[in-house]
Amino acid sequence: MSDFEPRPDTCYPKTERSRIRREHHLGSYERADVHAILDASPLCHIGYVIDGAPFVTPTLHWRKGNRVYWHGSVGSRFLRQVDGAPVCVTCSLMDGYVLARSALNHAVNYRSAMLFGTAHVVDSLDEKAEALRDFTDDLFPGRWDSLRPMTEKEVKATSVLWMEVEEATVKVRTGPPNDADESDVPVWAGVLPMRTMLTTAQPAPELPTSIGLPDLLATLIASGRLR
Q: 149 CB contacts (<8 Å, ≥6 apart)?
């Protein structure tokens, strides 16, 4: 990755709001790079301003094309107030600690994406239910059809918001410490990899023993992937 003038056909625009100012060589405006990190991250943080004060809330998200969705409770004092407001969505994945020969050169390997747009609330119950179906099947393909159908009351109790991605950037760091010139210092240096993954499933206490783990979930666990 490098600092370059984004190409309109494959990149998000580079503006004063989204321009990468530090370590340009780690950055990208490529849509494919942004989408890859967004899709790999199980959690995002939504930043917005209400009554002049900043707020950042963590939530689960999903993507359809260039549109990002997230959800919450209709009882939240934030969700309705951000309808039509500018928001910033960030995702980050930490891949390892990078240990160098000096404290200054320590770092982390990571992948991060920052996206800008305008928040909108989904009001239609049908559209909301369809969005929640997409959310569930994005995490666990095909699971929605096996579940008890959502009631109208449950759909009404859930807020779904979305934004069209207007601008976005990515930064990624990989590799060993940048201190090869200090290789004569007698201190261990290198990378301690880090990974977030699915582990052994824990059945609900009241689950009948006749109901086994679905093959799909067993496959997901075996692969270790989050989404």
A: none
Whole-number Cα distances in Å, 108 to 19, 149, 151, 219: 22, 43, 45, 30
Enter the pTM of the model.
Answer: 0.87
**Cα 71 from Cα 121, distance rounded (Å):** 10
Q: Is 135:70 a contact under the CB 8 Å cutoff?
A: no
Tens-digit pLDDT profile for residues 42-51: 899 999 998 8
In whole angstroms, how far apart are CA 137 and each of 39, 62, 74, 142, 147?
Answer: 13, 10, 22, 6, 11
Rounded to an integer, what distance in angstroms lies between the CA atom of residue 14 and that of residue 87?
17
**The dihedral formed by the CA atoms of 8, 13, 19 and 25, expressed in degrees to the nearest 10:** -30
Name the token pair of 138: 């994005």
As a whole number of angstroms, the distance between CA 28 and CA 6 comes to: 9
Q: Distance of alpha carbon 59 from its chain centroid, rounded?
A: 9
pLDDT at 1: 44
Ordered by start, the domain boundaries in the chain are: 24-194, 197-227
**Domain spanning 24-194: CATH superfamily:** Electron Transport, Fmn-binding Protein; Chain A (2.30.110.10)
- Reduced to 3 states (helix: H, G, I; strand: E, B; else coil), residue 114 is strand
Q: Determine contact, residues 179/131, Cβ cutoff 8 Å.
A: no
